Amino acid sequence: MRQIGINLHAKRGLDVDAYSKKVKELGFDTIFTGVCKTIDEQTALAESFSKNGLIYENLHAPFGHINDIWFDCEGGVAMLDELLTSVDHCAAVNAPILVVHLSSGVKAPQISDIGRARFEALVEHASKKGITLAFENQRKVANIAWVFENFEDCDNVRFCWDCGHEACFTLGREYIPLFGKNLICTHIHDNFKVFNGDAHLIPFDGKIDFNRFAQLINKYEYKGPLTLEVIAGNSDLYDDISVDAYLEKAALTIKKLRAMVDGE
Amino acid sequence: MRKIGINFISVSGMDAEEYVKRIKELGFETTFTGIYADVADQIKMAELFAKYGIEYEFTHSDFAGINNMWLEGADGDAMFSTLKRNVDLTAAAGVPATIVHLSSGNTPPSISDIGRARYVELVEYAAAKGVRIDFENLRKLANVAWAMETFEDYDNVGFCWDCGHENCYTKSIEFMPLFGKRLISTHIHDNRGIKDGDDHMLPFDGNLDFDRFAEHIKNSGYTGSLMLEVFKSNEFYSNITNEEYILRAAAAAKKLRAMVDGE
Question: Which of B15, B38, B103, B174 is the most buried (most CB within 10 A)?
């Protein structure tokens, strides 16, 4: 049966061990996190996941000032360093994939010579460490199309489909027909399809057409995990339910989605 | 009724005026040409089309060496100058737009600082001359997406959808759902769907899905012309005359128009 996954701390209130134990009990197989400040912290997370029988599917690279990477500035140098370090953290905890953004905001920077050189350095570093970079769709198509053209021959450059971003950042656009053959991981969440309303709701609580989601996953023969990236704090929809109740609801919906994709 | 058009000149061995007269008789209302060596020749074409009531819808800018636009050096500078001259000739002939390629071949250069700067300057140069730049899809998505994103707020930039290129260069990519709202001109032709087999056949002579084509046009809200970009030189047409070819072209364009707009 296909694996299902969820991000760490989708709703606050449990420590890492208790959260890991709970999601495992609910049937989740994989988990992902951000990048910790130190490798020791990252390793501690990995040990907790391992103890509870969870696979550390991927790390999500920092993206707080990702636009800097395209500019000749100190922030750009720092951003590349953060991404290189993120690769190192992946390698240290045997998380095989690093999810990477290419830009942020409506007025994202253009593809530039220095940005191109930095991403080339990142891809090369990741390759040496045995890490796959999964580039995630945001608001622009040029930069992500550029990635798959520029790194067409690099086995470690793949696609992370964020169906929630697609629905609220680029309404009417479908990324899977463009990059589905490169798909390696998923960020699954829902929203009300309002521009920039990136609510990260549990599937079926918003307006995304998950029948279409399932159809595209199958059409492009993706066999990897269906992984939730849900954040209770991004809306007030889940304010009145406990962490346990929230995770139980998340587990039910991702299993429902798995059934829609793969059959009962 | 929506206009149909055809390139000048889709057949060889036919007098220019005779061709223009004949396509007009067959119901074509609009045309396009390449860029001529001399401005007088470009203007002469405009006069010929005007004489027969044919709209000179756009020119097709030169594209040999287009990849150099993205590279530093004299060849890039020369290509940039060529494109600016193409704009000049387009304006001189009173033509409102020119079609521009962004790359050539399967391994074109990446988007670069120098290339971006040149294309931005070209678009601004064209705006000052009252000329629209229509960027056409070739083998790559990133550079067309770059142009559509960069020039999102420019009134003088649009998308030229080449459905034939899509069918033989980028089979898995549909450009219209991405850029259909920017559609301003068309290059319509057919092919066998073989990778890099840019046959430029008449519609319905290859395997392009023209039902899907019509659906895309309807969904986009585009109301402009349906412009053929076809060449009889394809050996598929070696056994028919120029007259038979043009008749067939007109029938295909009208059939396509009916599929898009209804009878």
Answer: B103
> Which H or E run includes B248?
helix B242-261
Relative to beta strand A30-34, strand A97-100 is unpaired
Whether residues A110 and B150 touch (CB distance < 8 A) is answered with yes
Do the strands A4-7 and A97-100 form a parallel or antiparallel pair, or are they unpaired? unpaired
Q: Is A40 on the interface with B (CB under 8 A)?
A: no
ipTM: 0.93
A67-91, pLDDT tens digit by residue? Answer: 999 999 999 999 999 999 999 999 9
Per-residue pLDDT 10s for chain B (263 aa) are 999 999 999 999 999 999 999 999 999 999 999 999 999 999 999 999 999 999 999 999 999 999 999 999 999 999 999 999 999 999 999 999 999 999 999 999 999 999 999 999 999 999 999 999 999 999 999 999 999 999 999 999 999 999 999 999 998 899 999 999 999 999 999 999 999 999 999 999 999 999 999 999 999 999 999 999 999 999 999 999 999 999 999 999 999 999 999 97
Structure-block tokens of residue A69: 């990477």
CA quadruple B141, B142, B144, B148: dihedral sign: positive
Chain B residue set in contact with A, beta carbons under 8 Å: 110-113, 116, 140-143, 145-146, 148-150, 172-174, 177-178
Cβ distance A149 to B140 less than 8 Å, yes or no, reads yes
DSSP, collapsed to helix, strand or coil, labels residue B87 as helix
What integer pLDDT is reported at residue B174 of this predicted model?
A: 96
Mean pLDDT (chain B) is: 97
* A-B contacts at Cβ under 8 angstroms: 56
Q: Are B215 and B226 in contact (CB under 8 A)?
A: no
Sign of CA dihedral A50, A52, A57, A62: negative
Burial bucket for residue A50 (CB in 10 Å: 0-12, 13-18, 19+):
middle
What's the rounded Cα separation, in Å, for the pair B146 and A142? 5
Q: Is B13 left (phi over 0), alpha (psi -120 to 50) or beta?
A: left
CA dihedral B144, B149, B150, B151 (to 10 degrees): 90
Instruction: State both tokens at A33.
Output: 């996190």
Nearest to B177 among A110, A116, A173 (CB): A173
Reading the block at residue B103, the tokens are 């790359």
A-chain residues within 8 Å CB-CB of B146?
A: 110-111, 142, 146
Are residues A141 and B178, on separate chains, in Cβ contact within 8 Å?
yes
Greatest alpha-carbon span in chain B: 53
